């Protein structure tokens, strides 16, 4: 499951470009980078460029922030999105908590941007997105049994533009990730 992720722009030119485009289109005060939580608005990549969308499909009694990649093509809630409304959620990493409630940050080794496969649809008069998840790979299994469907840079365009390729990507194993503790460090000195 992915319930929180990071979108920071300090040292990443690609993320800075996305932030600049979002602020140009929506206004400087509409959105700021940082830690992204469900119901927050954040940049999402479509074939035509970045859009600002709210995280989570709001249903009558619940909010859906993740969709299982393995079953998304079969589920009525996601079937239309998987064929026509795929998106990519750019981030600088995502968070997951272990069984002791310790927060960990996962990043793609050697890369400043981590791309997560997603779906979107119009709900309550605005575009909303959810993040696709899959079975955890070996870098994730010590912390959790699920993880976002992480795309390599070269998989982003096929995910957005090629339905047959997107269907295959639903069943790929995400790349290995680096993990670091995201807990606040206390110092006695």
Can you tell me about this structure?
The structure is a single chain. With 189 residues, the chain is α+β, with helices and mostly antiparallel strands. The chain has one domain (5-178): SOS response associated peptidase-like (hypothetical protein yedk fold, Alpha-Beta Complex). Helices cover 21% and strands 38% of the residues. The protein has helices spanning 13-26, 76-84, 153-161, 163-169, and strands at 5-7, 34-36, 41-46, 49-55, 57-58, 63-64, 66-68, 86-91, 93-97, 103-107, 114-123, 126-135, 146-148, 150-151, 178-181. Strands 3, 4, 7, 8, 11, 12, 13 and 14 form an 8-stranded mixed beta sheet that branches. It has a 5-stranded antiparallel beta sheet with strand order 2-1-9-10-15, with no helix packed on it. Strands 5-6 form a two-stranded antiparallel ribbon. Helix 3 (153-161) crosses helix 4 (163-169). The radius of gyration is 16 Å and the shape is globular. It starts with a strand and ends in an 8-residue tail after the last strand.
Number of helices: 4
> How many runs of DSSP E, i.e. beta strands?
15
Q: List low-confidence stretches.
A: 185-189
> Biggest sheet, in brief?
8 strands, mixed
Helix content: 10-25%
First-last Cα distance: 37 Å
Query: Which CATH architecture?
Result: Alpha-Beta Complex
Q: What is the approximate shape? A: globular
The CATH superfamily is SOS response associated peptidase-like
Proportion of beta-strand residues:
35-45%
CATH topology: hypothetical protein yedk fold
The total tally of domains equals: 1
Mean pLDDT, to the nearest integer, reads 89
- Secondary-structure-based class equals alpha+beta
